Amino acid sequence: MRRAILAVLTGVLVAVVAFGAAAPAGVLVKLNEVQVIGTHNSYHIEPPADLLEMLINIDPAAKELAYSHPPLGDQFSYEGVRQIELDVYADPAGTLWRPIGRSGFKVFHIEGFDERSTCEVFVDCLAEVKAWSDARPAHMPIAILIEVKDNADLPGPPDPIPVGPAELDALDAEIRSVFAADRLIEPDDVRGARPTLEEAVLAGEWPAIDDVRGDVIFLLDNKRDEYRSGHPSLEGRVAFTPSSPGQPDAAFIKENDPTGAKTAEIQGLVAAGYVVRTRADTPVLTPQAGDTSQRDAALASGAQWVSTDYPVPGYAERWGSDYVAAIPGGNPARCNPVNGPAGCTAALIEDLPPEQRPTTTTTSTTSTAPAAVTVTPAFTG
Questions:
Q1: Are 73 and 133 in contact (CB under 8 A)?
Q2: How far separated are the first and last CA of the chain, in Å rounded?
Q3: For 102-136, how does the pLDDT look when each residue is reduced to its tens digit (9 = 90+)?
Q4: Overall average pLDDT of the 273-299 stretch
Q5: 3-state helix, strand, coil in the chain (%, to 5)
Q6: How far apart are CA 243 and CA 273, in angstroms?
Q7: pLDDT reading at 18 higher than 80
Q8: What is the average pLDDT across 238-245?
Q9: What burial letters (b/e) apply to 111-131, b meaning 16+ CB within 10 Å?
Q10: Is residue 126 a contact partner of residue 83, using CB atoms and an 8 Å limit?
Q11: C or N: which end of the chain has fewer Cβ atoms within 10 Å?
């Protein structure tokens, strides 16, 4: 998190330069009082057409692998994305996953048959985020959700390395090798002097957006117990763990399904002070069906981060659909429909100059859709 003196100076600069005028007196928008769009498996490039066709013939559910995203910076610039998701596998010796010879965590979806990524090395992905951020220091915080994978999807070598506390220490170290402490929103920053992180969250201790412009916040999708080992309230840790109310580390709640009774449940969590990530859709079934119910529930829930594979118009055309999941009135964020403060406007959250996508930029609409099949989603992690 930005230190106090820097926050004061940049707050004045942001108010005058980025917004064109000082913010209305008394309006303070906090990190948990906004809603933004994110992307699911943000690094993902779908398998080659021949491999994808073979996989679908084996299991029709593999059609859910048919989605791709542009590079991370393009998502931020041209799609209004402010939350991304990276899947990581440990490769400390650099001998398991490409690029061979590069040690550290590698980024891909499923070992053996769905390994294509716009950024193959975790620290390289983070460097892309940092480069984009460095060029636009007035942006609202970017959330990075990390799913740590160590399951073997295919028999035989290479076998994924089991990830425990030591490997998660290495994950924190890789994050800190790219982002300095004053660019990170960490659990210690939110907890302050309170005994537990949850106490701070319920007391409304999330930072104001103006104090954390240009920063990033890391969220873990899994491995909560291993990550908390020796850090019950995430003392000294970089990321926020997926928890539940009543736990000392409870700040971030993961709820992938926002429909039905879950809509009101998420609304209650947001109103209490927690931050929530949910999903608007599945990669293929949702646009094919033209079903907007999950998207609409996700937006109504007030979940701060709503993940999609279709953040802009056009991506679903390959499925004969005009489906899109975007923040209504967001530029790129909106005031949270559940707990946004009075007087909040989208421009107070972020108001960067619009950027136009170059016509040569590769997008997720460039791949040819496989033949239509009826599927039950399985490959949606």
A1: no
A2: 30
A3: 999 999 999 988 999 999 999 999 999 999 999 99
A4: 97
A5: 35, 15, 50
A6: 13
A7: no
A8: 99
A9: bebbbbbbbbbbbbbbbbbbe
A10: no
A11: C
Compute the distance between CA of residue 255 and CA of residue 242 in angstroms, rounded to an integer. 9
Q: What is the mean pLDDT of residues 158-180?
A: 97
List b or e across 223-261, with b for residues whose CB sees 16 or more CB atoms inside 10 angstroms: bbebbbeebebbeebbbbbbbeeebbbbbbbbbbebeee
- What's the rounded mean pLDDT across residues 215-238? 98
Distance, in Å, from the CA atom of 81 to the CA atom of 143, rounded to the nearest integer, reads 10
Which of 68-72, 100-104, 154-158 is predicted with the least confidence, judged by mean pLDDT? 154-158
Tokens of 47: 């398998």
Per DSSP, the three-state class of 270 is: helix
Question: Greatest CA separation found in the chain?
Answer: 63
Q: Any residues with CB less than 8 A from the CB of 86 and at least 6 apart, and which?
A: 42, 43, 107, 122, 125, 144, 145, 146, 147
For residue 157, whether the previous peptide bond is cis, meaning omega lies within 30 degrees of 0, is no
Write the CB contacts of 261 (distance below 8 Å, at least 6 apart in sequence): none
pLDDT range class, residue 375, cuts 50, 70, 90: very low
pLDDT tens digit sequence for 327-342: 998 779 999 999 999 9
Q: How many residues can be counted in the chain? A: 381
Distance of CA 99 to the CA centre of its chain: 24
C-alpha distances (whole Å) from 293 to each of 1, 11, 36, 222, 365 are 36, 38, 18, 26, 23
Alpha-carbon gap, residue 341 to 30, rounded angstroms: 9
For the cut 90, the answer to whether the pLDDT of residue 378 exceeds it is no
Alpha-carbon distance values, 230 to 222, 226, 235 (Å): 17, 9, 8
Phi-psi region of 318 (alpha: psi -120 to 50; beta: other; left: phi over 0): alpha
Strands 305-308 and 34-39: parallel
CA distance 301 to 19: 28
Residue 207 is given by DSSP the state P
> Residue 360: its pLDDT value, please?
59
Close Cβ partners of 141 (under 8 Å, ≥ 6 residues apart): 31, 82, 185, 209, 212, 213, 215, 216, 217
DSSP string covering 287-313? HHHT--HHHHHHHHHT-SEEEES--ST
